[in-house]
Amino acid sequence: MQTNNGRTMRYRELSLPHARWLIALQAALVAIMMVGLPLQANAAPAPARVYLMRGVLNIFSLGMDQIANRLEQQGISASVHNHMLWASVADDAAAAYRSGRIKTIILVGHSSGATVLPDMVARLSAQGVPVKLAIGLDSVFHTSLSGKVGRYINFYIANGVGTPVARTKNFTGTLDNVDVERVPGVSHVSIDKNEIIQQKVIAAIDAAVASGPSAEPGAPRPPGVPGAAPPSASTKRAAAAPSSSTRHAAN
Description:
By secondary structure, the protein is an alpha/beta fold. The protein contains 8 helices and 7 strands. The chain has 2 domains: 2-41; 48-216 and 236-248, Alpha/Beta hydrolase fold, catalytic domain (Rossmann fold). Strands 2-1-3-4-5-6-7 form a 7-stranded parallel sheet, with helices on both faces. Helix 4 (86-99) packs parallel to helix 6. The longest helix has 26 residues, at 16-41. The protein is globular and about 55 Å long.
């Protein structure tokens, strides 16, 4: 009785605002514990990351920053880099992938930043790290692809300085060369900042992220997945044909 009375006295000694504050604090703690448990049990999957490479002098490709900001607003992690640092950016992406911090790697580049994308794909492939999607915007030099990438989209201006991307016999994936010379207001300097082009880039990124991570280069297909069985002679002939296309972008 004395203990109960003592406790009763101590509670009675508290002012009404203090008592309400303690009750609210207890309720908040209980709510946090109840909400926290299911969040821990259902951890979010490893996210995608988009690496955007600027062009020459690192000042003429500010559309890369605009695209990065729009992706971040959608909840997609993105970072912008100097094209001259392409090797270290690729290595950082590989390290993040191997650590499990990211599972989907997407590359985007403008001008000289687009020129280094095939090098980044090849470097990541050599380390066994898959690239889900790569998007080049009007590379000013002829480039060729090797290694593996789920899909490579090359937006270029045929009547300007841009060129199609070629594939080598060591390339695995889908290559789309898309001529955007008919897009209103597009030029080599403005292609990365053009609203229509940005919408196409972001739409391709959204689709790649939604479809989930790609398999590692050389990874075997699980049983039951189309393509797991040994290919027939006709399949081999079809696989030998280049899986690339050149087309004009709609306005």
